Amino acid sequence: MALSFKPLHATFVAEVSTVDLRTVKDAATLEQIRCGMDKYNVLVFRNQPFTDDEQLEFAQRFDGQLHARTSTSVLVKNRFGNEALSDISNVGADGQLLSPDDRRRMTGLANRLWHADATFVEPAGRYSMLSARVVPPVAADTEFADMCAAYDALDDETKSTIAGLKVHHSIAYSRELLGFEFAPAEKEQLKGAVHPLVRDFPRSGRRSLYLASHASSIIDMRVPEGRLLLRDLMEHATQARFVYSHHWAVGDFVIWDNRSTMHRARPFDDGKYRRELRRTTTLDLPLSVTA
What we know:
This protein is an alpha+beta fold. It has a single domain, classed as Double-stranded beta-helix (4-Layer Sandwich), CATH 3.60.130.10. The protein has eight helices and 15 strands. The chain has helices at residues 27-40, 52-63, 103-108, 147-152, 156-162, 171-176, 184-189, 223-237, and strands at 5-7, 14-16, 42-45, 86-89, 125-134, 142-146, 166-169, 193-196, 198-201, 206-209, 215-218, 243-246, 253-257, 261-265, 276-283. The strands form four sheets. A seven-stranded mixed beta sheet has the order 1-2-3-13-5-15-4, with helices on one face. A three-stranded antiparallel beta sheet has the order 12-6-14. A three-stranded antiparallel beta sheet has the order 8-7-11. β1 and β2 form a beta hairpin. It is globular. It starts with a strand and ends in an 8-residue tail after the last strand.
């Protein structure tokens, strides 16, 4: 099956031609999608009526092992019974809208910070895949930032300064920025991980800034200077010229590369309108899946 890719932004993001991902199992088509990810970093597929099991099966078929060490597992039981299927919604196990002071809602507000999924574990996340099941009748967009274009736009002195630096990522840190508190046992489970500040991509020959709101400190750099550098890089990388905003429709299925993009949810009246999406994230491991 030959796929076509329609660019949606000047530097990244493309919409893929009509295809039913539930039935895509041949190695050639799966590789076309991977090549599209190498080029565009974010791919948009329309009219994908996944069930939960079908989404999990496609994610494994496409990219192997799934991430299941999610932050919410420390706080509340997954209502789907599978931590590999992240519940990106504002409803509880009873199907009702979460109350304003519900702990799951409160920690989910951190999704409005610029971040990449699963940077706080080792191995980190590679591809995330988000399926829109219920969308509100108002704008509830997700914004994506092109971290390859952001790296390319840095001056040579800055590129030299950040080469080889490593950063500690902790999801507890990003939640604490919003005043969220963790019990000692919870914080122990969210210790975080260390990753390079610049990522290399042999398949495309490009580099990216590897940033997130979870980035708490630069290893071997004094905390004030390290955090200021991270803040400056975040401001640079999230300029309007590097950002694409996706307006969701039911059936949309968006795949993005967490190593070369950041994203954030935009606010809407979540006390009035229901919004339900399901996310699967794969781990950055050598690809060993077969079609």
